[in-house]
Amino acid sequence: MGMVSNIFNDEAIKKLSGNLGIGHTRYSTSAASEAVNSQPFVVHTAHGALATAHNGELVNAASLRRQVLERGVGLSTHSDSELITQSLCLNPNTCERDGPDWPARIRHFMTEAPLSYSIVIMLKDKIYGVRDPYGNRPLCIGKIVPVDVDRKVKVEDAPAEGWVISSESCGFLSIGARYVREVEPGEIVEMTRNGIRTVDIVNRPDQKKMSFCIFEYVYFARSDSLFEGQMVYSVRLQCGRQLARESPVTADIVSSVPESGTAAAHGYARESGLHFAEVLCKNRYVGRTFIQPSNRLRQLGVAKKFGALSENVAGKRLVLIDDSIVRGNTIGPIIKLLRDAGATEVHIRIASPPLLYPCYMGINIPTREELIGNRMNPEELARHVGADSLAYLSVEGLEEAVKLNRQTKGKREQSGYCTACLTGEYPGGVPDLEW
After folding, report:
1. Distance between CA atoms of 284 and 306, rounded to whole angstroms?
2. How many Å apart are CA 204 and CA 208, to the nearest integer?
3. In this predicted model, what pLDDT tens digit does every residue of 299-312 receive, in sequence order?
4. Domains of the chain
5. H or E element in which residue 49 lies
6. Where do runs of H (alpha helix) occur along 8-94?
7. What is the pTM of this model?
8. What's the CA gap between 138 and 243, in Å, rounded?
9. What is the pLDDT of residues 173-186, one digit of tens each?
């Protein structure tokens, strides 16, 4: 338990040996934030150790759990990772010779559980990367190249010193890897010392559209990550431009709630012709308030998280851009901070639509009652938080921004996004939840 930088210090790294490995940083959803639910999940089989780590949440975990228990397998946690691992260890009733046919077992699992996951599965001599058939959660491939290879050399022409697979591409450069491509929806890739190859592709049920989580663009992904051939930063910039077209306001400066609102604020400033200026100074030693476990801690976190740059604020009419409003606890104290610093007007513009529905696919938004967008319309919310006005980006505007520069493989009409938290339209239908 704890931060990666604290746990994996120099001494811990020296103890790691071998030529392949997987890791995971946990964001608790269906199971509690406890050490027992941490990943990777490891089991020891007759054919050696099997380790699994995943991002996402199984929407049919309850029925899958029953299937595993009915096969005589005990489960010691509520983690989806254990459920995935034990499902893979069960023979899918196909004829296996010379040991397990892991691609067949993975395919069987994917047909039983089409949503929502990206998974890495490690055996003694190989790693499998798996993305759900809807492509709901991201997964991409990188190639480790020699440090002396010129950046002008195309990645496909550069020699490979190793291969990596990750939910996001932003970590590749820091380890000397280059982005190659995304794992396609439903694709199973195999990494060995001989390289990387596709071993199978599982199609979506009834030829439904891809449903990549649009909230990855809005909030979760780091801005230098690549999805669908475009950088997340450029999408957020375009969201700001679209927001300026949809909800203009007379003001002196545009600013952001750093860091995730900054790209959209630059887009809003460019489209509106207003000057961008920083108005909040972020304390880099405080974590994300959205992920704090209680409202009181979130509200206290805001006070510790920001300071106001009063010279930029005093006497100014300000447009403040944020990426999203979830529970509405953080924006009110920020507005008060800016007014205390001398702002004459504070207009809030949100670079995403209001969150209205819970997510069952890996984002910690469990109830509609917690979401401020269900309790107040924009005018009511503006009064509640002390803003002069408040407006959201439309769902159509968000989709337009995301689609502007994307590079899709195959049929463009088959590509699509999960907007369930915004519209209530779930890619696999509303899950039948029993937990």
Report:
1. 9
2. 6
3. 555 556 788 999 99
4. 15-220 (3.60.20.10), 231-398 (3.40.50.2020)
5. strand 48-56
6. 10-14, 61-70, 80-89
7. 0.90
8. 26
9. 999 999 999 999 99
